[in-house]
Amino acid sequence: MARILSMKDAINEALDLEMRRDPTVIIMGEDIAGGAGAQGEEDAWGGVLGVTKGLIGKYGAKRVMDTPLSESAYIGAAVGAAACGLRPVAELMFLDFMGVCFDQIFNQAAKFKYMFGGKAQTPVVIRGMVGGGFRAAAQHSQMLTPLFTHIPGLKVVCPSNAYDAKGLLIQSIRDNDPVIFCEHKNLYTHAVDVPAESYTIPFGEAAISREGKSATIVTYGLMVHRALEAAETLAKEKIDVEVIDLRTLSPIDLDTVIESVEKTGRLVAVDEANPRCSIASDVIASVMEHAFKAMKSAPRAVTAPHTPVPFSPTLEDLYIPSAAAIAEAVRGTMK
Amino acid sequence: MSDSQIKMIVMPKWGLSMSEGKVVKWLAKEGAKISVGDELLEVETEKIASAVEATDSGTLRRIVGEVDTVYPVKQLLAVIADDSVSDSEIDAFLASYVPPAVDEEGEAEKDAYEYIDLPIGTVRYAKYGDGGKTLLFIHGFGGDLDNWLFNVNTLAENHTVYAVDLPGHGRSVKSLTDASLAGLSKFVLEFMDALSIDSANLVGHSLGGAIAMKTAITAPKRVKTITLIGSAGLGNEINMGYIDGFIGSESRREIKPFLEELFFDRSLVGRQMIDDILKSKRLDNVTDVLRHLADTVFKGGHQAEKLGDAAAASGVPILAIHGTDDHIIPAAHTETLKGKASVHVMGDAGHMVQMEKSKETNKLISDHIH
Amino acid sequence: MSNNPFPLPKEKLLEAYTKMKTIREFEERLHVEFAKGDIPGFVHLYAGEEASGTGIMMHLEDKDRIASTHRGHGHCIAKGVDVNGMMAEIYGKVTGSCRGKGGSMHIADLSKGMMGANGILGAGAPLICGAALASKYRGDGGVGITFFGDGASNQGTVLESMNLAAVWNLPVIFVVENNGYAESTSIDYAVAVDSYIDRAAGFGIPGVTVDGTDFFAVHEAAGEIIKRAREGGGPAFLECKMVRFFGHFEGDAQTYRAKGENEENRANKDCIKIFRKRVGGAGVISDAEFEKIDKAVMHTIEESVQRAKKDPLPSAKELLTDVYVSY
Q1: What is the pLDDT of residue B46?
Q2: What pLDDT score was predicted for residue B2?
């Protein structure tokens, strides 16, 4: 009796279990209940894609708070409440909206502990959608993980499947540091076996999604699936690819990456983000620094181009790294 | 047509979650004479690597499973046939071979894990086979029912086999109020009650062996035989470094050296095995339950109960199997059973002797049970 | 004390005076020490504004939280943060409130309900909404006070927070400390409305404007709105009109000011002089008592400076501690 759950449901379950376990956990965001103050149902939406559906019925409006469309105020309020003993999970619907509230994230939440000499903790989780493929255009489709990863004091999580999403979200809520929890909107319906119980996955431990000997692909989020697809293609060509799913970008598990590259001698870093100062470029730089001698060929990066995310499906499909592009990059390292 | 004389060697299915395996190397060459039990090839799954043994005799006529290639479970890898079968018949057979629709079947079999509500909470188990004799497999400390992946399917060919996750383990309830052997034995009997198993052949590994003995002592009528594999409950020592390390490890890197202590062949500890164990350990309360269990059954760094004599006195026939290189519980502990039980200490095997010497173990169990 | 005409008993008046005087001496001394070049970075002094922070903080307990500004020393002292720790922090010493990692603009002591001075204008307003939400959630009766200047009053964070506090009916007091200048830019130029009360009304929040150089005016107005907030009456807005004795930061030539403006402020708008004149004039606190406090305060500040100068600097290992992730 495998228990197949979508990533959306796994995230909902993680929130549910933690709210049940810990009364200091509250959630807030735009329409996360949906319909607050309106004539119809209070639980009308459960978030724009229904991720938090049903929680207000279990925990009430005191713990499941619809907010005004006012990201700076409520993200800041979540940060302030975290510094005062609650464990808020604030939904920033699309992480692209960080632009209007970034000060509260990077100048406030991220810095409290260091700036106050270790005397503050800020256990806030800011979760939201990332990534393309939804035909949502330039301001609702970005992979902004590198921006968050750049900031010391923030932890950055981007799961590739429902099992990891549940364990990493529970870990995020229990963690005493601010966590940016990136949910790829195209993985919400992706389903795998998920235990009903609560469990945690520690930060800074990459998963080896596929073992292989010929080349290492390092990636995260939706791109894990593209990389695995590429690996299947390459297996038919006798190229045995190892796929590493970073799972958390900050902290990052460079040990697993370096161990793998020391075995394979070849590296392809795949990132749905734009190329400059990306996770891909960071991984490649770190590997070059620590495992240069193991390299049998030059590493390659497969990323989105240095453009905004286009709207038209034909263009967006070109924008997001494809399994074919990843496979071609791996072939390139084999020459 | 002599199809019936052409025997297929297929990708085996070890455990419920195995859906595919990789051919690592062929141990027998085309044209070799094969007897039942000969090791034909080495197969690696995400969990573990092992040899595939011949179940038919004849000549290894054709190898179709390529090295370093992954095949779904039940996919044809080679054919064995008598020399009387012509090459053209073999060719015809291969040409007409249709691979099984493994995906659907695999998914369906995944669902063979079952759950049942007991007084202690929800318990996971698996049932394999039907008819014949009834066996119940009880795993050890920190294990789960998949520890039996090389045993249950073979034995289920002729018997009804159950394997259960103890409380606090696998996917069973993560609480354990009475962590003593008596409490765990009571759990086993409750499980048997719930499934209307009047009596069974109990096969216990490590701590599971001690539980099997306790059950034989307290309820001999419900226990036909017991098989003790790398069993606890026979002597004083227990490798507490392993126990504490297993409980305390939080990452792949930390736990790997401890898991390697379980095996004679340390390379058997693969990435998937480690990931599966961590998946279980990371469930809420598991660490607490394991600590509580260790503090009870291995109180003060020693085994709390020695049950060999009492188990023998219960009249329930005992088979004991141990690896010479068991680093968790010394093989010398089995000496206490000499003369009272059938004792087999095997070389080139560690604590997980049922995995490392699955063929011998399965044969011994098969011969032992009633 | 039958002849005390003030709404506070004598010991509270002594406490208020001591706080204001401590703030003043702290800032005057920093003005001197900064000029010597011993203090790294930059400092923004609160001198002249003491009646605002003190008048409000006299109503607060440790469970009540404040979010301060870049000009935060006065708020810290009024909220009970240790003066030695503050001075050491400003000198960048490991004994500082933040182990030398925050500096003048980031002094915080969460155990005292001081959620930090803040280098980002208006950033404290959302944070204090969160603090107030936590108090409301727990039902502990705590309130949150966010301070900002007339400059930061134009920040979107402040305006968004006013709406959020009103929508969620949070126990938050928005305090604009209006000293007339956003750095060098006059309020007449930068704030579109004539009255902050009108702006507050736009968010459905009651507002009140007081003379921020008058401790008693601040104390009375703050008392009412804080009590209302504690009792679930929701947020309020308080404008304290005041003067800033020094420039925006130390080293500011203040050429934007009118001729004689600073002298006029010192002579006629000094909140401490005004307090002393009223309380002394009423015969509640004698000159000798005031002078005794002055002497004690001078001693406190002198000692804090001497200690701060002698205290050790952070060791190199401090660079990598107190941060969640280090590579």
Answers
A1: 72
A2: 45
Tokens linked to B162: 């159950």
Judging contacts by C-beta atoms under 8 Å, the chain B residues touching residue A167 are 282
| Residue A67 near residue A88 (C-beta atoms within 8 A) | no
User: Residue B287: closest CA among chain A residues belongs to which residue?
Assistant: A199
The ipTM of this complex is 0.94
For residues B196 and B277, state if they share a domain.
yes
Instruction: Look up the CATH superfamily of A4-193.
Output: Thiamin diphosphate (ThDP)-binding fold, Pyr/PP domains (3.40.50.970)
Q: C-alpha distances in angstroms, A189 versus A167, A293, C196?
A: 17, 42, 50
Q: What is the pLDDT of residue C326?
A: 56
Looking at the domain assignment, is residue C319 inside a domain?
A: no
pLDDT for A121-153, tens place per residue?
999 999 999 999 999 999 999 999 999 999 999
- Which chain C residue is nearest to residue A116, measuring alpha carbons? C98
How many C-beta neighbours within 10 Å does residue C224 have? Answer: 15
Q: How many domains does chain B have?
A: 2
Contact A80 C120 (CB under 8 A): no
Residues C253-284: tens digit of each pLDDT: 999 999 999 999 999 999 999 999 999 999 99
Nearest to C146 by CA among C228, C53, C248: C53
Q: Which residues of A touch B282 (CB under 8 A)?
A: 167, 199-201
The answer to whether A2 contacts B275, with C-beta atoms less than 8 Å apart, is no
Instruction: Report d(CA A233, CA A243) in Å as an integer.
Output: 13
CA contacts within 13 A on the Cβ side of B231: 36
CATH number at residue B101: 2.40.50.100
CATH topology match: A4-193 vs A207-334? yes
Query: What does each C-alpha distance from A128 to A98, A110, C307 come to in angstroms?
Result: 10, 17, 48
Band (pLDDT 50/70/90 cuts) for residue C2 is low
Residue B4 in tokens = 């019936």
The predicted pLDDT at position A320 comes to 97
Classified as helix, coil or strand, C126 is helix
What one-character DSSP code corresponds to residue A91? E
How distant is the Cα of C93 from the closest Cα of chain A, in angstroms? 11
Q: Where are the extended beta strands (E) located within B98-152?
A: 113-118, 121-128, 134-138
What are C113-142's pLDDT values in tens digits?
A: 999 999 999 999 999 999 999 999 999 999
Let me know if residue C95 belongs to a domain.
Answer: yes
| Cross-chain CB nearest to A76 (options C116, C129, C167) | C129
To the query of whether residue A184 is one of the catalytic residues in this protein, the response is: no
Q: Of all helices (H) and strands (E), which one includes residue B364?
A: helix B358-368
**Hey, where are the domains in chain A?**
4-193, 207-334
Please check whether residue C103 is in contact with residue C92, taking contact to mean a CB–CB distance below 8 angstroms.
Answer: yes
Q: Please give the pLDDT value at position A283.
A: 98
Mutation target vs A (from C63, C105, C127, C318; most A CBs, 10 A cutoff): C127
Inter-chain CB proximity C164 and A62 less than 8 Å: no
E strand map for B281-336: 318-323
Domain with B196, as residue range(s), is 112-368
Distance CA(B20)–CA(B57), nearest Å, equals 25
Q: What is the mean pLDDT of residues A67-92?
A: 97
Checking if the pLDDT of C1 tops 70, the result is: no
Taking 50 as the pLDDT cut, the residues of chain B under it are 1-2, 104-111
CATH of domain A207-334: 3.40.50.920
Quote the tokens at residue A236: 């038919």
Per-residue model confidence as pLDDT tens digits over B154-170: 999 999 999 999 999 99
Domain region containing C95: 10-311
Report the C-alpha gap between A109 and A25 in whole angstroms: 17
| pLDDT tens for each residue of A26-55 | 999 999 998 888 888 888 899 989 999 999
Total tally of structural domains belonging to chain C: 1
- State residue B16's pLDDT score: 67
β-pair type (B39-44, B20-26): antiparallel
